[in-house]
Amino acid sequence: MITRQEINGKATLNYSWYDVNELNESDIRQLKRLFRLTPAILNYISDRHERPHYDYDVHTQSELIVYDVPIWPNKEVEHFTTRPIIFLLQGTTVFTFHNDETAYVFEKFKADRIKEVSTATEFIMTFLLHATNYFNQALDKINNERNILDRKLNGHIINHDLLQLAQIEKSLIYLSSSIKTNLMMLEDLRHTPLTLQITKESQEKLDDILIEMEQASRVVQIANDVTGKISRTSNNILNNNLNDTMKFLTGWSIILTIPTIGTGFYGMNVDLPFMKLPLAWLLVSGILVSLMLILYWFLKRKNIL
Predict the structure, then answer these.
(1) Under CATH, which number does the domain 2-240 receive?
(2) 245-301 and 2-240 share a CATH fold
(3) What's CA 146's distance to the chain center, in Å?
(4) For residue 68, which of 34, 42, 102 has the smallest C-alpha distance?
(5) pLDDT over threshold 70, residue 10
């Protein structure tokens, strides 16, 4: 649905803002008819998985910016993912495209006090700075969850904790990929027509966006390293515990084979030693227990038990 947006309860004077949520075929026909968008641009804004980049259309003099934002975990997907939001600048008209998953970014942006934004370019830079802050919030949440999980893993390791650690690793993969592509797009943005005639305020906001994104890039790299080391350490501990358990079970299975072998021999219908004695079973049992104790001492000495 295409909606003409107002900022702080009033329409902007120097530019127009149209917000499009959950783009459909009717919206595409309307955009094509009223604003003469080219098929290439329409393909970009229709792709829900478009990667961050900048594109300039010479024929319509339209500038397209695709930028990823984080999506918080939910019941269906238990880790962070990312989805693109799209900005289209056509003269003094700004279009924003998003879906229900990224709607939270727009709702909070509209609630902010941005009445000082006076141009379309400054509007885009302000929005990008607003969206960038969510990466740092997502990374803070991941780091807090990892620290809590790390304290749990110092004790008894269970499968549920390892599954949570795997979800954190998945979150970092998605965020790391989007941060890198966002950063590449922002670096390229310095040399595009969009930034050739921007105001000083817009340039300062672009610099702030780059600083925030570079900081997020360093934080996600550190988080990846720390999480990877915790995961490897946890797996090593779990494997070591499994080895200890297998050694324990193997040792006792060897010990318990002694009475099995002894009773097996005496279950045969042949003449065997001590079978004529009245208390033969006590003597045989004593010998078997003695052999078991000797084997137990030997295995204990070899740190098998």
Answers:
(1) 3.30.460.20
(2) no
(3) 12
(4) 102
(5) no
Structure tokens at 95: 């279009």
Looking at residue 183, its amino acid is: L
How far apart are alpha carbons 151 and 242 in whole angstroms? 21
Give the start-to-end residue ranges of the domains of the chain: 2-240, 245-301
Inter-CA distances, 5 with 2, 93, 156, Å: 9, 11, 54
**CATH says 245-301 is which class?**
mainly alpha
- Confidence at 12, pLDDT banded by 50, 70, 90: low
**E strand residue ranges, the chain:** 2-4, 16-21, 53-57, 62-71, 81-90, 93-98
The DSSP symbol for 271 reads -
pTM: 0.79
> Average pLDDT of 187-206?
82
Residue 201 CB coordination number (10 Å): 16
Distance CA 264, CA 139 (A): 64
Q: What is the mean pLDDT of residues 157-170?
A: 85
Is the pLDDT at 115 greater than 60, yes or no?
Answer: no
